[in-house]
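Bit of a strange request maybe. I'm writing a small parser for structure token strings and I need a real example to test against, not something I typed by hand. Could someone generate the tokens for this chain?
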Amino acid sequence: MAADQHKLECSILKTVLYSDLFDYPLTPDEITHYLIGVAGTIDQVCASLSAPVWLDGQLAYVDGYVMARGREALVKRRIDRTRSSDRLWRHARRFIRVLSILPFVRMIGVTGALAMDNSADGDDIDVMIVTVPDRVWLTRALAVLLVYVGKLCGDTLCPNYLVSENALALEHRNLFVAHEFMQMVPVYGLDVYTRMCGANNWIEAILPNARRPLRAEPEYQPGRIGRAFKRWAERWLAGAIGDRLEAWEMRRKLRKFQEKLGQPDGDAILDRDHVKGHFDDYGGPVMRLYAERLAQHVSGET
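Reply from user aminoacidic:
Good idea to test on real output. This should exercise your parser:
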């Protein structure tokens, strides 16, 4: 029992420290959901937080939130960002309605800070899009048109991660990727999202409790006119015309992006099934900083 308690408390600390990298205190429910490496229950987590053994003195508790000791000021920041995120979600839903009727789009998920209600005013609306095979570049081009419309409205839509249904398995397997995927909020194409979860069941070993999105957004269903437009556009762009446009757009953008490839900490993938424009990805720096925090706080405790 003592060994299990030790393991759970170490997992709680790891989970809080990871979230602290994003200046984001957690509720006990959120800690339970994102527990790293351990499948604990909410009752077990609450019991460990209320009567800690190894955790004693390392965490602080303010207004129902848990954070690393000395980081109590993050509570006000989180409350402020929740309000900002609420406003940004209203804008995001408008974009989703349009994105969902673009030809070849099969899934849309809100990612990044907004998925965690951790956006500040003026932050980007990050989305991941799954397309039919052989249409990721053409779909991206159409989505970019919506980006320009968003800028006129004062919003920044970032469709910087598109994959085809042939590439549902994520490329890297680590805590950062697992967390980013499991905090994603699917808003269109739940059947494809379910298939994507199945293609990435390795995540269960890292985040065993996070088997569903913590935030629930209703799946958007296009109306009759939207569905009719989507069918018409897909018929028109499904054959040779679409093939030529896809190949042309891919060649054009690969030439433009070539100089950005190979940057330190870059994680871009550009091919017929991926348009992952993470040229200056922060996954690597986050994982290095997290390793440093673990060495400071849990060295010898695991």
